[in-house]
């Protein structure tokens, strides 16, 4: 731990006020989402506790507001602050899971393509090139639509969360694969890899134990930046009505619900979830930008 605080990475972090603020904001967003059952004033998804008489209450600072609902309530009487905290849990869960999935697929493909080369490299990279010609959100919509058409209607809500994670994750693996492939092409010709071959280590062990640790720096940067995109992609899918089920609403679902009441005066139902989504994604992206610069030796 002491070595980390003495490292160049920590020095770079402490010398960037924007990065420090972004890290604090990201920590607050993640902590608020993870600890929502403990910190949230209400459980917005407990139907027994909802009161329709409390619907459309404005934020607490307005004349008709209620202090027990700091950010107001929606059309069902749900506390908006609690709904945002619970919704952020779903958005972050989908974001982290999708990034982990795309990282595993992309790093594996990139290592195989870069280390083996030849026809394997050509085949895998052509597949990645074909997928890169389609917008990621379009690929996610296509996968979600195919799964919904294949599976019975009664199982849609049960697998919706996993389908969204798979759809977003599988649409982003080419970025990881191309980056890892480029780094692997450089690493495979270095002396330590040649020495590992001479002593008879298998290609799998060489890739896992020697090449992989040396290509992880750009992967961490891409993963951080892709986390923000994955959260936005999930919000987009949920806003279009093809994301997580209404029983597990994310920030995108809350924005879609509030959009129906935006022009009738209940602006808080969509504005506050939208602001929460912007703040969360912006803080993550700023951290990714800092990490990219901090791990770039040319900028030191």
TrEMBL record:
It comes from the Bacteria. SUPFAM superfamilies: MetI-like (SSF161098). PROSITE patterns: ABC_TM1 (PS50928). The chain crosses the membrane at residues 20-40, 90-116, 123-143, 211-233, 267-291. Gene3D superfamilies: MetI-like. Belongs to the binding-protein-dependent transport system permease family. This is ABC transporter permease. The lineage of its organism: Bacteria, Pseudomonadati, Pseudomonadota, Alphaproteobacteria, Acetobacterales.
């Amino acid at each position: 731990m002491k070595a980390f605080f003495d490292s160049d990475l920590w020095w770079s972090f402490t010398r960037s006020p924007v990065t420090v603020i972004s890290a604090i904001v990201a920590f607050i967003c993640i902590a608020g989402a993870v600890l929502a059952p403990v910190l949230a004033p209400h459980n917005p998804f407990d139907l027994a506790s909802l009161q329709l008489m409390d619907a459309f209450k404005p934020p607490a600072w307005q004349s008709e507001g209620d202090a027990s609902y700091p950010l107001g309530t929606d059309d069902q009487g749900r506390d908006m602050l609690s709904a945002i905290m619970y919704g952020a849990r779903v958005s972050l869960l989908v974001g982290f899971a999708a990034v982990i999935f795309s990282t595993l697929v992309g790093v594996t493909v990139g290592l195989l393509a870069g280390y083996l080369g030849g026809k394997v490299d050509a085949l895998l990279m052509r597949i990645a090139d074909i997928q890169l010609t389609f917008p990621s959100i379009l690929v996610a919509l296509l996968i979600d639509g195919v799964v919904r058409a294949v599976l019975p209607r009664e199982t849609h809500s049960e697998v919706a969360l996993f389908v969204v994670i798979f759809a977003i994750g599988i649409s982003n693996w080419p970025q990881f694969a191309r980056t890892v492939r480029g780094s692997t092409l450089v690493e495979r010709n270095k002396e330590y890899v040649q020495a590992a071959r001479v002593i008879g280590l298998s290609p799998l062990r060489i890739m896992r134990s020697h090449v992989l640790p040396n290509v992880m720096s750009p992967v961490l940067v891409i993963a951080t930046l892709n986390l923000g995109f994955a959260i936005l992609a999930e919000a987009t899918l949920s806003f279009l009505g093809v994301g997580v089920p209404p029983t597990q609403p994310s920030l995108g679902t809350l924005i879609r619900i509030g959009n129906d009441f935006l022009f009738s005066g209940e602006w808080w139902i969509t504005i506050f979830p939208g602001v929460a989504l912007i703040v969360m994604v912006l803080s993550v992206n700023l951290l990714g930008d800092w990490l990219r610069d901090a791990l770039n030796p040319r900028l030191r």
